[in-house]
Design a protein that fits this description.
The chain has about 160 residues and is mainly beta. It has two helices and eleven strands. It has helices at about 1-15, 40-45; strands spanning about 20-25, 30-35, 55, 60-70, 70-75, 75-80, 85-90, 100, 120-125, 130-140, 145-155. The protein has a six-stranded mixed beta sheet with strand order 2-1-9-7-4-5, with no helix packed on it. The protein has a five-stranded mixed beta sheet with strand order 3-6-11-10-8, with no helix packed on it.
Length: about 160
């Protein structure tokens, strides 16, 4: 119980010092806003390498990432701050979108769990801060192999 209390104290301290948030909209229409961990000093001075295979979608207000069995399509996307990103599961299996970064480290975001991404399910996040947000499906990959993807948010 003490560790849980310390976690919430740390989370409260983090959110009081930061305006970084991701908005989660479940298929049911329920909206939740949670803190997204990024370091202002690191992000502002960080150069993010954009892979050749990345799809540049900057300037669009919304983007859809299709989840198929064992893959995300498009795997690596580049978007502008504030772009609404919706993951839609068009596969036969249940999936999730889990940040590769550990809780509250740069690149972390609230995970989209399997309760939202059942077959034909969808979930939405909005990334407001520039940075790299790698993710994976825990059922079909690891943080570095298998069903992986990445959202790169850059200023226009």
């Amino acid at each position: 119980m003490r560790m849980l209390g310390l976690f919430f104290i740390g989370l409260c301290l983090f959110t009081s010092c930061s305006n970084r948030h991701a908005t989660i909209i479940a298929r049911s229409g329920i909206t939740t806003t949670m803190p997204v961990a990024t370091s202002q000093t690191v992000v502002s001075s960080m150069t993010i390498a954009i892979p050749e295979k990345a799809v540049d979608l900057t300037g669009l207000s919304s983007v859809t990432v299709i989840i198929e069995d064992n893959s995300f399509s498009e795997r690596i996307i580049v978007v502008s701050p504030g772009t609404v990103i919706t993951w839609v599961n068009e596969g036969r299996n249940t999936h999730n979108v889990t940040p590769a970064a550990k809780n509250l480290e740069p690149g972390w975001f609230p995970p989209l769990n399997e309760d939202l991404l059942f077959p034909q399910g969808s979930a939405t996040l909005t990334f407001d801060e520039p940075g790299a947000y790698p993710y994976y499906c825990t059922f079909h990959g690891t943080a570095t192999r298998g069903q992986t993807g990445q959202v790169i948010v850059r200023n226009n």
